[in-house]
User: What shape does this take?
Amino acid sequence: MAKKKTLKPSTNRDYTRKHRCTFMLNDKEYASLECYMKKYNIKNKSKLIRDILMFEVIKRQADDSPTLFD
Assistant: This one.
């Protein structure tokens, strides 16, 4: 059986998360989030929310940026 690779923390200080963002969910939103995490066997809620949020932010920034032929 192959050994699992261990992830080492990044030594690059530029990527250290030091800004906290908090938000509130109502009961239905929270239940939906919990159901999604259970269905897809997701253990890390912070990573899930961060990945989805940043994907959408970066995608919209790319869509909104001016192009050469606009």
Remarks:
- DSSP finds two helices and no strands in the chain.
- The radius of gyration is 17 Å.
- The mean pLDDT is 87.
